[in-house]
Amino acid sequence: MTLQQLKYIIMIAETGSITMAAERLFIAQPSLSKSVAELEREMGITIFNRSNRGVYLSEEGTKFLSYARQIVEQAELLESEYKAAPPPNRAFAVSSQHYAFVVNAFVELVREYGRDKYEFTLRELKTAEIIEDVRTHRSDIGVLFLSKFNREVIRHILQNEELKFEKLFTAKPHVFVSRSNPLVGRKKVTLDDLKSFPRLTYDQGVKNSFYFAEELHITAESPKNIIVSDRATLFNLLIGLDGYTISSGVLSSDLNGSNIVSIPLESDEIMDIGYIITTDRPMNELTQRYLEHLKEYIANYSP
User: Fold this and answer.
1) How far, in Å, are 40, 158, 163 from residue 135 at the CA level?
2) Same domain membership, residue 106 and residue 40
3) pLDDT at 20 over 90
4) Do 48 and 178 lie in a common domain?
């Protein structure tokens, strides 16, 4: 069954004549008759009954016609959407762990683009989903971190998927807490200091391996744990429950307000925050420009 055959059926039903339909379709009448016969044989039904005055729809044919019209109408909608005017070009897409600086750089790139039509995409995702997005070229780059704890595992996965990691900067661990948290004012905190507060971490879904966690010291003892899926919820819980999350410490009030404070965490870990790209295609101009914005933002707001 083809879309063209469905259009044939509609025209024959409207004219009530194979001969007249063939004339309007600019095809030979025998070819049209053959196409209809092949469709009837394929579907196992009789679409048209024949009479001396022409053809008319059978009971099965009437039902078939209603489906045929729906399919043809949907196809025409697709054509009008994509042929009448070209769709917006997919300009740039990034998938990332939950970093505010990724959003800030994204904002600057979109502002700079300055065209009437575009399609930019920013996805804050689970670690495994970021890798998959870049592998399948759904995103141009992915932003995540490597540490002493996860480096070997993540690099092995990236190598198997023909991806490579490029470091942007190295951050020492910090904790984000609300400005009203009792820990605010300390020069640094320890993991023991944090045990009485709720620990907030990001959900990693079905691939909830410790190696995919977005937070350092994920295996450290913590009696109070809350798992969330988005950054806004995490920040709200930091404020509402005096919770904490372990992070890079890169924070500004531009998009995050002034209610969150970053405090250094005493730790022997580090966060190599960087981006992943595929090895089979060159980086486009917008991706390069995005990375420039990212590096500039990080340089201005790193602790």
Assistant:
1) 44, 9, 7
2) no
3) no
4) no
